Structures are given as structure tokens and as C-alpha cells.
Amino acid sequence: MTLRMRSRFDAACFVFALLTATVVLAPWTHAQSQEQELQQMKDKVQQLEQQLQELKAQITQAQQKPATSTPDANVAVRANEEAQETPAAPESGSGKNTVDIYGHVMLDSGYEFGQSDPNWFDVMRPTKLASFDGQFAPDGKTYFGVRQTRFGVKTSTPTGLGNLKTVFEFELFGTGGDAGQTTFRLRHAYGELGHFGAGQTWSTFMDIDVFANSLEYWGPNGMVFFRNLQVRWAPIQNDHTRLIFAVERPGASADGGTYADRVELQRTKPKFDVPDFSLQARFMRNWGYLQLAGIFRKISWVNTATTPPFGLTGDAFGWGINVTSNLNFTKNNIGRFEVVYGKGIQNYMNDAPVDVALKNTTNPGEPVVGVALPVLGVVSFLDHNWNSKFSTSLGYSLVNISNSNAQAPSDYHQGHYSLTNLLYHPVPSVTMGGEFQFGRRVNFSDGFNVNDYRLQFSFKYDWKKGFVF
Predict the structure, then answer these.
(1) How far is 109 from 455, CA to CA, in rounded Å?
(2) Is residue 257 left, alpha or beta, with left meaning phi > 0 and alpha meaning psi from -120 to 50?
(3) Which residues of 13-24 are buried (b: 16+ CB within 10 A; e: fewer)?
(4) Comparing C-alpha atoms, which of 109, 107, 78 is closest to residue 454?
């Protein structure tokens, strides 16, 4: 075989071998390529599934996390009070009817080291501490009660003028003529349509979000706290600003002081011919909120005797300014603050005595007159979440009355309130824990003051059922 023929023969063999390898290896190469593509597709699907799970987790977290612009952006479960909805802007009327039935069962137990009015055995109220030595002796007692147990119904009905909302709620804590009793007591009977609301609910002058996360029922003595009958209008209601105007049911109490036993005073009766006027403005931001509230009221009294004596018919004008705030210091720390000052607004305070008292004058023709008493209230509390199951609240509150010169030396002048606790939430609907409470009363001018201490242990079980139709 010649050299040229050998070269051609070698080339033909090379081409034949290459074609054979291509035919033999092509299916295997194609299968390998398909397997790689399939694996890439599986990787992409897995990546998309992971992204979907992350998005679901973010949605769940956003739904569970309270909005920082709302008034109820609390870091801890409030044990006592649930903020009442305020009038909302009118909606289009689309939606469904909803009914929420809710409440809780709560047992309070504890030990009081000092003494206080037995009608208020399970709360810390400085006004109900002894005004003289041994008034409610002896010291020390154990107490139990279920008076904080609560039941309520809320409804929402869409209309062309906005949502029609109602709330009906009661508890078992007796006051007034039922003080000290376990009996039904109305808390809220209130309805609103769009911008307008009417019924009994939180006074427009108050701020329920200042209430500490406490076990003790009555709460800080220096805060404005009053559920009142009212008609109100909220022209501005959004995520950043709230403005409310209201007319509220008037009422007051008076102190005859050193003249309390005089016959002339027995014919003197209160007269309320003008409602109380209140307003509220709240500004909500990521750091919390600032609320400004004011009230103006007229308090009158008339002596019904045929020939009334001097100075026993008259009136006084009451007014007050209330500045409150919640500050979100961190994710797990929220501060609750309030400073309120005014005259003749004790009726709206959480724990303060009379609105009006007699005052001696230098006028022989009118030796005594009725005056509205100045009052200062302060609240400063911190709520802290240790983790998802444990929380603590601690703080201080003060009430200071500027007494008139005709009041009795043993009349109430100043009250101090403080507490700290550790609460445990084994599940979100259960709260249990212990709390240390302190109260102090200072009399007007006889030099008497008294301290009281309590340890309280409580168990609270919440429940709620909603219906949509």
C-alpha cells in the first residue's frame, strides 16, 4: 500500500471512528443534558418555594405586629383595660356584618399589710386609706375576689353612611351603693355611625392607653379615668391624626369642711344646667403618640330655703388640660405618661375626692364661698416584655389637691401610688402573676399620713368568638 493510500485509509478510519463515537455517545450525552436541565429546574422551584415561605412569614409577622401609628401599640398584654374603639371615618358601606362576643374570667387574691376601707378591699386607692390612726383597724387581711370578670359584645354593620358600630360590656365590680359587692356593673353601652357616636364609654377627656399593664383593678390614681354618658363628633380620624369634640353628662361632689354640720348647708343642692364640654387631639407617629385633651364645665349650687343665707347659692367654673403619651423606647419597652392639671375636675380623676369646697373670706357680708379645688395628676409607667411569655410593669402616680382654708384638717390632700409585677403568659389567652403595690395618703393640715402595702396574685382567662354574616 502506497503512502498516499495509507493516509487516505487512516483518514477514513478516523472519520468512521468519530461517526461511531457520535452515534454511540449521543443518547448518553443527551440524557445527561436533560438531567442537568431537570436539576436546574428543581433548584429554581426549591428557591421559589423558599421565597414563598419567607413572604408568608413576613405577612404573618406584619399581621401580628401592632401598627405603631395606632393608639394601642402596646408591647405587653394589658391585664385590666381594653381600649374602646373611637369614632372612625365613614366607609363605603361595603363589607359584612360582624359580631364579637368576648370577655374574661379573673381571680384576684392577695394580702394587705395595712388597713383600708373594707368596701374597697381588693384595690389600692389612697383616698380609701385611713384618715386617722386605727380608722379601719386591725392591720393585715387576706382577700379573694372575681370582680374583674367581664363580658361584652361588639358589632359592626356596614351602611351607606359608614360602619355602624356598637359595644355593650359589663363586669362584676360593684361601686356606689354596691361598693364592696360582686354584682353586675355597666361599663360600655355605646354606638357610633361614621363620625358620630353616643352612649356611655371613655370620656373624651381621658386616655385609656395610659393605664398600666397591672393586676390591680383601680389603676394609677393620678390619671383621668371616667366612663361617661356623651355625644361626640370626630371630624378627623385617620392613621396619623384624631380630633374629637364631645358634650358629656355633668356631675360633681362637694365638701362642707368645717361647716359640714351646719343646718344651712342641708338645704343647699347641686344644680347642673349646662353639660360638660370636652375635646381631644391625638397625633400618632412611629415613635408613639402625643394626645392633648381639655374640658370646661360649670358647677352650680342653690340653697332652697325660703330666705337663703349668704354665700350658699353660687357657681364655679371647672377646667382642665390633660397631656398624655405612649413612647416606644424599644421593641420591648413602652412608656406611659400623663400630666393633668385643672380646677373642679376631680369627678373625672381615677382617685380624687371632691370638686368643690367652701372657702373662708374676709367679707363680713359673705364669710364663705364655694370654690373649685385645683388638682394635679401625674402618671409615669414602663411596660417591659422579657420575652413572649414574661412581662413586667412598674411605675408611679401622684394626686395633689390644693385645699381651701375651710376644709377639715383631716381632709385628703395628697395620694401616692406605685406598683411592680411579673406576669406570665403560658398561652396568649392566659395571664397569671404576682404584683407588689404601694399606697400613701397625706391629710390636709393635721400632720397625719399613712402607708399601705399589698401583695396580689391573679389568674385571668380570656376568650373571644367572632361571627361574620
Answers:
(1) 9
(2) left
(3) eeeeeeeeeeee
(4) 109
- Contact in structure between 228 and 249 (CB atoms under 8 Å): yes
> What percent of the chain is predicted at pLDDT more than 90?
70
Predicted model pTM = 0.81
Other CB atoms within 10 A of residue 253 CB: 13
Q: Measure Cα distances from 458 to 79, 185, 373, 422, 433 in Å.
A: 10, 21, 37, 11, 6
Residues 6 or more apart in contact with residue 110 via CB below 8 angstroms: 122, 142, 143, 454, 455, 456, 457
Which pLDDT belongs to residue 92? 42
Q: Which amino acid is at 317?
A: F
The pLDDT of residue 45 is above 90? no
Pairing relation of β-strands 254-255 and 356-360? parallel
Block residue for cell numbers 325660703? 306
Q: Is 255 exposed, middle or buried (0-12, 13-18, 19+ CB in 10 A)?
A: buried
Q: Are 231 and 251 in contact (CB under 8 A)?
A: no
Q: Which of 66, 69, 61, 146 is nearest to 103 (CA)?
A: 146
> Is residue 136 within 8 Å of residue 127, measured between CB atoms?
no
Would you say 282 and 73 are in contact if contact means Cβ atoms under 8 Å apart? no
* CB burial readout 83-96, b (16+ within 10 A) else e: eebbbbebeeeeee
* 3-class state of residue 175 by DSSP: coil
Q: What is the three-class DSSP state of 441?
A: strand
What are the distances in angstroms from CA 142 to CA 57, 109, 156, 432, 437? 48, 7, 43, 18, 14
CA distance 317 to 334: 36
What beta strand segments (E) does 65-223 contain?
A: 98-112, 141-145, 150-159, 162-173, 182-193, 196-202
C-alpha cell read off for 252:
360633681
Range among 219-223, 255-259, 356-360 rated most confident: 219-223
| Residue 322 CA, distance from chain mean position | 15
Using alpha carbons, list the distances in angstroms from residue 257 to 339, 354, 382: 28, 11, 38
User: Could you tell me which of 390, 393, 354, 392 has the C-alpha nearest to residue 374?
Assistant: 354
